Amino acid sequence: MTMMYTKHFPGGPAVSGLLSCLFVTMEYLIHPFSWFASQFISLFIPTTSELEKPYFVIVKVVFLFVPYLLASVLFFPLYAIGVLARVPLQHVRAPYIISEKWTPYSRRKYQKRRACDQYTILTANLCLLPEFLARFNNLSRTASRATEIGQRIIVDQLLHDQNHAREAELPIPLTRLLERHRLEHKRVLNYSANNSNKGVPAGMSPAISSITSSLLVSSTLAHFTQLDFLCFQECWSTTLTQRLVRELQQLYPYIVHDIGAYDFDVNCYGFNSGLMFASKYCIGDVDFKPFTGELTRGAFDSKGLLMVKLQINKQHVGYIFLTHLEAFEGKKKIREKQMTSIMSWMHDFKKSNKELHDVILFDFLCGDFNFDNMSPCDKSCQHHALFDKYEDVARERPGVDKAWSIGTKLRQLSLYEEAVSSPEVMQRTLQSPLKRPLYVVDATLVKGSYGEIRAQQPRLDGRGKPLITPRSGKRRTNYILCRHNIPVIVENYNFITRLATLTDHVPISMTIKVHA
Question: Judging by beta carbons within 10 Å of its beta carbon (0-12, 13-18, 19+), is residue 451 exposed, middle or buried?
């Protein structure tokens, strides 16, 4: 049985409170310099949307260069003190926090919830980074993005929920959120009607899952379905993550966040893992293991594996494992070693938390694996032993994806183009085999480097139209895997465009039916 951390520091109320107070004080010393320095660097990293207004970019640099620079210099001594004083505290700080918060609405709505035979899980890379780092991915407005992501998820849960009796029973904040959404949705639909793409397929393509003989429906959706479990990556900023947590806890009472181990050998006392997990069902146990060893771009973050055991009821349990593998490994085969570690950690976690009466309903492994199933540079990962234990329903075999699968890594330089400017418009774009390669990275990478991915251009024929191949728009790096020996029926596998312009990844969800 592992430790369940519900507070940042161990000890009694007095000791824990004192350490928490000291840590928060150090955070206050660090924050001003971090914010001003990030804004200062951001002046020189305009997004493609801002470059459409070059005069605005120039004016912003001229008027904000000196104030941001002076503020950064002024607050740097406090930053240095805070960073150094925080190091010993990080050694005793909990590797994650389990937050359980019930609102009157969520308690009333879910107090009679019981184990059911159908569950839906979502995984999404949100790119909630400090402003200047997010801009390297052509994203900005980090604070407002965090809030908006949470609101879009909550709104869709309310709109899809057929169980609440009357909207009048909703608390005022949720009522206002729904009303604002309806106005925005009406505006988008009017725009879409005037700019419709004719001849685009409906996007419902049946495929047979190799897990069962059941008919699996793969869809590209503009809105989230009802979601039981949320698995996020790149929630690296604690401040931004708190914004997201506040929104989600209106409907998701159990959230694991601020996940990561802090050590010089792990992350040089830098960022946490970026992982975050939210659930409508009770969390029975949690553990986190950081990746160690030779890293490249991940040397300053605590990537690893989050392991969660869900207590659906007294008898039925489920396991969800969440990870984010090394992004750019070069020739070092880092991801293969990480997957091998994952297999060992998952086995040990389930063994140490097994109870005699447990009946396992499901066993998921999901996250951003940073490799696809078709690119030449990822061939060794595609054949890893992990896929002998867990099933990827979107792939036919190593090196070949199902015909209905699409890529989840968007072309960063095209994030603000009209064809992907809203959930509904982006949905139609991704449903079109002719348009999709213009906005989703091809699975043709040879090196898999940051430069190669960012510079990759759509392949065009002599008439300037996309050259369609089996690898066009197929860079699928986000995965939801099912354990082979757990009898489940995969009913739906969805690519969701609801977070258009808010992230450079396409979220995916999967609905399973279990034998309870």
Answer: exposed
What are the helix (H) ranges across 6-47? 13-42
Q: Any bridge partners for residue 321, and if so which?
A: 307, 365
Q: What percent of the chain has pLDDT over 70?
A: 88
DSSP-derived secondary structure for 343-393: HHHHHHHHHHT--TT-EEEEEEEEEE-S--SS-GGGHHHHT-THHHHEE-T
**Angle, vertex CA 495, rays to CA 490 and CA 497, nearest 5:** 150
For each of the domains in the chain, give its residue range(s) and CATH number, in order of start. Answer: 13-92 (no CATH), 97-109+126-514 (3.60.10.10)
Distances (CA, A) of 266 to 95, 238, 269, 272: 12, 18, 8, 10
User: Whole-angstrom Cα distance, residue 48 to residue 417?
Assistant: 9
Q: Which residue has the tokens 């190799």?
A: 210
pTM as predicted: 0.91
Q: Is the separation of the CB atoms in 322 and 273 below 8 Å?
A: no
Closest CA to 126 of 144, 99, 111, 105: 144
pLDDT in tens, 194-249: 554 433 333 334 333 334 434 577 899 999 999 999 999 999 888 889 999 999 99
